[in-house]
Amino acid sequence: MGDIGALMDGFATVLSPSALLFAAVGVTLGTLVGVMPGIGPAVTIALLLPVATQFDDPIPAFIMFAGIYYGAMYGGSTTSILLNTPGESASVATAIEGNLMARRGEARAALATSAIGSFVAAIISTVLLALVAKPAADAAVSIQATSYVAIMILSLATVTALVGHSVVRGLVSLMLGMMFALVGLDPQSGQTRFTFGSSELFGGIEDVLIVIGLFAVGEVLYVLSNRPRDGHDAVIGLGDRPKGFLWLTPAQWRRSWGPWLRGAAFGFPFGAMPSGGAELPTFLSYSWEKNRSKGRAEFGEGAIEGVAGPEAANNASFTGVLVPLLTLGIPTSATAAVMIAAFKQFNIQPGPQLFATSGDLVWALIASLFVGNVLLLVLNLPLINLWVKVLSVPTPVLYSGILVFASLGIYASSGNSTQVTIAIAIGVLGFVMRKLDFPIAPTILGAILATEMERQFRRAMVSSHGDLSVFWTRPVTLVILLLALAAFALPQLPRIVALARGRRPGKRLAFGDED
Known about the structure:
The chain has helices at about 1-15, 15-35, 40-50, 60-85, 90-105, 105-140, 145-160, 165-180, 205-225, 250-270, 280-290, 305-330, 335-345, 355, 360-380, 385-390, 395-415, 415-435, 440-465, 470-475, 475-485, 495-500; strands at about 185, 190-195. It has about 525 residues and is an all-alpha fold. About 55% of the residues are buried.
């Protein structure tokens, strides 16, 4: 009953006029930036991070972040459907059938089933989050330092192994991120690390600079370098307004509700795992609907189930990602890593003690997930014509504005031009990495997790008097480490299965890192 009362207090906070305003602003800004081709939720939150962290109270900032995230995902689905340009890898499945629906004049129906499916899945997964988050945090309090380190290694190993097309490049990317985290003074000995004699680096590199550099700067440079020279894309029109409730005919409603529920069932459990990520549940949802739904004959021609299921799985997965983030302090996706950076800006450490130290913030954040999705549905379906107009603005103009906004945001928050230079340098490095096919997600996760992993490792060494064997003599820790080792074999599973069946080996299992 205490958790229910705390959630009701969270709703009381979020339903105040000022909080509702922040939620509405977050939804609108998130959609505005997310609708830009190639820009996903992680980029959107990174771009607006310096602005939000100027608040004295973190609660309004995180209410706005929740709106930004869901707004960005809605904007990403709009781009996928109307432009066939997914803003993140988890939207690829949506683009497959959604763009085909748009081409045959059913763009509004595709957008509607995407938005409503996201809403349904978000409500279901947020209820599950409210039920499991506090018990999970209570259980996490008893986790030993060795197991904590092992869980972090599992998270890093899974992302590094599955993201991109080369494990070696993933490991290089991870090491680079961990090096960023170690820049500055050693917290125990006071020795300088990777400062190269520069006093500007004694305080380390702020997470916000790494996030903005890799996403808002590096990603924009990469997208610009891959856009058509004329700076325009062919935007598919919305067509005539269809007859039916919320742009869906009765038949489309009947075909959509099942995929929405199944998508939510796929998304939340996978998101809550330490490996995280939305790509696997979205493609599992797409595959399920393609092979088992009543509309499977339309797949490849624009099946509404192929939009409804993956979008629901995508939204539910993000809510699931909040479980390890809030209870263990472990981000399992690039977007979650950006959220960790936001927590750190307010000197808040997510983890087992978060519900005890900042319970009002956590329950307000969970309540804002409900409210933000309602606002998203109420505000953005009527504004779809506005977002289509945003898509028609020349790409160089949009992205030049993003670069200027990111630079101004960093300078306004730090008052130091050196910080802007560092962020731009990291952005250029991120751009080069993308060009050379090095994944970005391991870099940002390594940068976010390395400091806490170092602290927990030192705790384990102190408690064991420097005996490293505690990592393989404790059964729970050993099992987690073996799972981390197995994660590197997982991408080869399709090849192993193909060889076992006497077929030609296929491609390794891999996902994008824009989630």
